[in-house]
Amino acid sequence: MKLLALSGSLRRTSYNTAAIQALKRLAPTSIEIVIGDISSLPLFNPDIENNDIPTVQALKSNLAQASGLIIASPEYAHGISGPMKNALDWLVSGVEFPYKPIMLVNTSPRASHALNALIEVITTMSGDIIESANVTVPLLSSELDADGIVENREISAVLSNGLKEFCQRIEASIP
Ligand SMILES: Cc1cc2nc3c(=O)[nH]c(=O)nc-3n(C[C@H](O)[C@H](O)[C@H](O)COP(=O)(O)O)c2cc1C
């Protein structure tokens, strides 16, 4: 099974990026997690939506090939991070996003506004959030990188269990 994972943070030592890097390492060999890059997407503009933009094509192609999408994104001023909202805007009119199973990873238990906004946006875009697979892990101020997350028994167990549930629900929905 192939999954696409996107981080909504462009920060070099991002906890959200570290969380999806850790998920990739924790995944069993039967599950390939492709980490997508949204940092080079142009700002969304409907005027150029149908242009052949390599970074946009790569995002859409990776999503089309994935059985599910994992999103880890920070809260900025009670909202969705600009890079993540921009990436989602590029996917609004395409055929790749609707009905795609989605797992949400929240790296900050105190951040609920962005998570709720993300759920609203994804639902509006007809994404299929697998609620039982969503996880919250306390990474904020933890100083943990991907290796540290993998080595942390409690946090890696939460991530692994969420991934397991996500994959089981995807498999169960395949006729
Ligand atoms: C501009 C800015 C605004 C932020 N606003 C909030 C906020 O409203 N609520 C919150 O819980 N954290 C807020 N934070 C903290 C970030 O969510 C937190 O640092 C998070 O770890 C960033 O994600 P990253 O580690 O993946 O880069 C903000 C951080 C920045 C830089």
Describe this protein's structure.
The protein is α/β, with parallel strands linked by helices. It has one domain: Flavodoxin domain (Rossmann fold), CATH 3.40.50.360. It has helices at residues 15-26, 54-65, 82-91, 113-124, 146-151, 153-173, and strands at 2-7, 32-35, 68-72, 75-76, 79-80, 101-106, 128-129, 135-136. Strands 1, 2, 3, 6, 7 and 8 form a 6-stranded parallel β-sheet that branches. Strands 4-5 form a two-stranded antiparallel ribbon. Helix 4 links the parallel strand 6 and strand 7. Helix 1 crosses helix 6 (153-173). It starts with a strand and ends with a helix. The mean pLDDT is 97.
Average per-residue pLDDT, rounded, comes to 97
Proportion of residues in helical segments: 40-55%
Secondary-structure-based class equals: alpha/beta
Estimate the global geometry from the Cα principal axes: globular
Domain NADPH-dependent FMN reductase-like: 1-125
Protein name: NADPH-dependent FMN reductase
Keywords: Flavoprotein, FMN
GO molecular function, one term: oxidoreductase activity
Q: Summed up, what is this model?
A:
Its cofactor is FMN. The protein has a single domain (2-173), classed as Flavodoxin domain (Rossmann fold).
Provide the descriptors you would attach to this structure in a database record.
alpha/beta; Rossmann fold; six-stranded parallel sheet; 175 residues; single chain; binds flavin mononucleotide; two-stranded antiparallel ribbon
